[in-house]
Write a sequence for this structure.
């Protein structure tokens, strides 16, 4: 049972990390647009 819970936690952590990178990428795009202005 604990193995199943740890497996779910790993999936959630990986999913959150991917979303965090995507969010950071959007933030960088916004900063670059402001710099171009």
């Amino acid at each position: 049972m604990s193995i199943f819970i740890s497996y779910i936690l790993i999936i959630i952590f990986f999913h959150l990390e991917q979303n965090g990178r995507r969010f950071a990428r959007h933030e960088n795009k916004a900063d670059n647009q402001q710099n171009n202005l």
